Hints:
Residues 109-191 form the Peptidase A2 domain. This protein is of the alpha+beta class.
Amino acid sequence: MNLGELGDLLYEKPLLALTILAILISVAAGMMAQHRPRLGRTLRNISHLGVVAALLLTVTQIALHNTRSEAALWLDETRQLTVNGSETVVPLRANGHYWARAMLNGEPVDFLIDTGASYTAISKSVASRVGIRKDPADRGVSLVTGNGAIVARLAIADSLTFGSIEAHELPVVVMPDNTTRTETNVIGMNLLSQLASWRVEDGQLILVPRSTPRS
């Protein structure tokens, strides 16, 4: 291996480069310890810091590659949607779903975006917290869930916004709190059908509104 190939290898593997550098500094510190003890101690401390940094980065890298580790889950939760021009880009989470933090009646609520769901659905506790209005014409709607058929109540959300997407006077269904053990709120096709388009591209869900949102 020539110097050029070695340089390319170290450039591609920064952890290896950091470890080698720390070792070289430690060797230099040992060589200078007798003649220049102060400089030797300084170099030794620097080499120790380099080794510790390399170990911490290695542990972090291993944790992030384990999708079930706390570090990977934390990083996954920080992957929020972005706005590119007029398009809202929602990243795919580690659990294989698309999630977005939206403002529902001005309050933050996490939603699963489900293109297979007919309705936008929220839990009864969230509906109460954000002040969802009951639909005067509500006679209930039958839905089939993983726990069987249920009757959900129709209601109206004054606003639901996330990224470049805005919906007003949006019909929603309010799910009974005992439907599931965990609270899951879903954005369904009754909102997505109002968009100009939506598509999945490179593992990202891209939503395009019909017009520029109101300021």
